[in-house]
């Protein structure tokens, strides 16, 4: 290929990057799993079939995925209806509780529930004082995982289903009422059918979340309920069982791809339209039946308490001495600010924050630069290179994080010609690269959409006046994209701060990120100081997440026209 200008060099670099870190590691993972000494081998499949614990984890993953699809839909649809469709007293207060999932999620939720309801928690001690025969491990296993994930995974409903309900044309509901439709008919025959496309998508996303769950099964599942990803982590620790871990990852990736294809076929095959030429804004509906109305209010506030209780307790525990939290004897005398003092004065406590912030910051910058570059190069183009960039940038969306991590770990634990003989395992750079890879699909799709909102006449005018392509992008296009770019970077940064799925495979032993530190603190043998610091980490992370959520969802709405 003859390189005529800087664009050619850029294309070469991007092709190398995509092949080296997105395509090659996954192909090498397939080769390592199914080919030994150049010959096809089913040894890993035989190992998997003979491993009862591996087969049970597969079954548990699908059980959790199906169960979660039902429970999350029930809770998610209910909380959206009571905040957006029905007149319920105290809606603003209810929203405050329901939307806490935006700032309190991932490994923080699982560890929080473990500390509050686990075997050494003050709640367990309190229950045992009332019911002596209750097991200290009462909050463990399938039920604990399902309960925790049900209330942690309604975020997508609160974002996407809320927007869909707000876009429903009120004239349809009004017309149905004029024809004698009752409340039940309006809900099940009018409203929910118009929301089917988004409900299908949310169900598939929830199913995938349950299928690839890591934190909740690992922390709360106990020995009796482990799913695929925790088993992948366990099997990957030894060379003998690493091929089983790889095969489990491939099964998980295959299931993900099949579900995505299935979702696309459903969306393409069924369209539900609820629009008119003169659309009317939706009005909240009164619940006429008194018994139903009271029941809805009671359930709404019960759910509010379930959402808020862990957060309130985590904040309270972060201001309490560690021994008081374990013993359950909390009083004003046990109130302390020492935990927060340690975070900002002791390097051992602050180091995980610094490590995770550095990793997440570098990854956010890297993924934004990559996505901006790709989005600009393929904007309004349909050639083969543009399609290659587009489809390759979506590959990580189809693969579970554990599969990506295993591919990187197995491929770059020895010198490879594609990296000029460099070994990445044991270096911090592999973590940053893995973080970038998993966030490419989201960042690319968001920034590509932002490019279509730019008026083409601006770029044409700049070129007419003699401006170069790079100068036009830097002075004309990028300033317009800056708000969206910063919002995407902030979301990526926030989502990676407590990452565990990738970090547990690739982190440097001397540079432990927050996700790994939090996971270690959930161990029963962890000391009180480590557990106390997790509360502080959780509170400060919620503050950071709250600021980012406000920035991306609050300030953006106030942007000038």
Describe this structure in words.
With 561 residues, the protein is mainly α. The protein has a domain at 337-561: MetI-like fold (Orthogonal Bundle), CATH 1.10.3720.10. Helix content is 71%, strand content 1%. The chain has helices at residues 6-34, 43-50, 52-85, 91-98, 107-117, 122-130, 142-152, 155-166, 170-178, 183-194, 196-211, 215-220, 228-235, 242-269, 290-318, 322-327, 338-345, 347-378, 384-398, 401-411, 429-451, 456-464, 469-496, 503-506, 514-521, 528-554, and strands at 35-36, 39-40. The protein has a two-stranded antiparallel ribbon with strand order 1-2. The longest helix is centred in the N-terminal third of the chain and has 34 residues, at 52-85. The protein is globular and about 75 Å long. It starts with 5 loop residues before the first helix and ends in a 7-residue tail after the last helix.
């Amino acid at each position: 290929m003859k390189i005529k200008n800087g664009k050619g060099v850029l294309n070469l670099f991007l092709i190398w990057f995509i092949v080296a870190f997105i395509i090659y590691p996954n192909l090498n993972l397939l080769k390592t799993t199914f080919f030994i000494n150049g010959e096809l081998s089913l040894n890993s499949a035989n190992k998997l079939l003979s491993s009862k614990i591996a087969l049970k984890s597969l079954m548990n993953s699908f059980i959790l995925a199906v169960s979660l699809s039902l429970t999350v839909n029930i809770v998610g649809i209910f909380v959206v209806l009571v905040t957006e469709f029905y007149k319920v007293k105290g809606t603003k207060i209810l929203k405050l509780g329901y939307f806490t999932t935006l700032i309190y999620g991932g490994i923080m939720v699982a560890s929080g529930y473990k500390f509050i309801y686990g075997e050494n928690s003050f709640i367990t001690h309190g229950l045992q004082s009332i019911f002596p025969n209750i097991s200290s491990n009462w909050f463990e296993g399938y039920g604990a995982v399902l309960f925790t994930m049900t209330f942690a995974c309604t975020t997508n409903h609160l974002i996407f289903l809320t927007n869909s309900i707000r876009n429903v044309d009120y004239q349809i509901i009004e017309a149905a009422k004029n024809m004698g439709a009752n409340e039940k008919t309006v809900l099940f025959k009018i409203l929910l059918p118009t929301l089917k496309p988004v409900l299908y998508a949310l169900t598939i996303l929830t199913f995938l979340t349950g299928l690839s769950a890591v934190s909740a099964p690992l922390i709360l599942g106990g020995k009796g309920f482990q799913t695929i990803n925790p088993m992948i982590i366990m099997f990957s620790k030894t060379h003998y069982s690493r091929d089983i871990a790889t095969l489990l990852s491939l099964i998980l990736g295959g299931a993900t791809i099949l579900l995505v294809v299935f979702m696309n076929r459903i969306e393409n095959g069924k369209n539900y339209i609820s629009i008119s030429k003169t659309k009317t804004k939706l009005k909240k509906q009164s619940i006429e039946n008194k018994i139903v109305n009271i029941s809805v209010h009671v359930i709404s506030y019960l759910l509010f308490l379930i959402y808020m209780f862990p957060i309130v307790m985590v904040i309270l525990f972060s201001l309490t001495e560690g021994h008081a939290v374990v013993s359950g004897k909390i009083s004003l005398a046990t109130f302390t600010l020492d935990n927060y003092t340690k975070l900002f004065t002791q390097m051992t406590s602050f180091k995980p924050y610094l490590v995770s912030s550095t990793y997440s910051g570098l990854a956010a910058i890297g993924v934004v630069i990559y996505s901006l570059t790709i989005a600009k190069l393929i904007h309004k183009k349909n050639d083969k290179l543009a399609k290659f960039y587009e489809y390759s940038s979506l590959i990580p969306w189809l693969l579970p994080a554990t599969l990506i991590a295993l591919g990187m770990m197995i491929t770059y634990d020895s010198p490879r010609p594609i990296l000029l003989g460099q070994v990445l395992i044991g270096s911090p750079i592999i973590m940053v690269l893995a973080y970038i890879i998993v966030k490419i699909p989201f960042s690319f799709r968001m920034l590509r959409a932002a490019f279509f909102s730019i008026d083409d006449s601006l770029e044409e005018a700049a070129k007419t006046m003699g401006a170069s392509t790079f100068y036009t992008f830097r002075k004309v296009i990028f300033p317009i994209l800056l708000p969206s770019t910063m919002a995407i970077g902030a979301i990526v940064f926030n989502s990676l701060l407590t990452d565990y799925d990738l970090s547990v495979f690739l982190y440097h032993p001397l540079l432990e990120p927050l996700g790994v530190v939090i996971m270690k603190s959930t161990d029963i043998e962890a000391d009180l100081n480590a557990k106390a610091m997790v509360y502080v980490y959780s509170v400060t992370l919620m503050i950071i997440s709250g600021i980012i959520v406000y920035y991306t969802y609050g300030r953006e709405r106030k942007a000038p026209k």
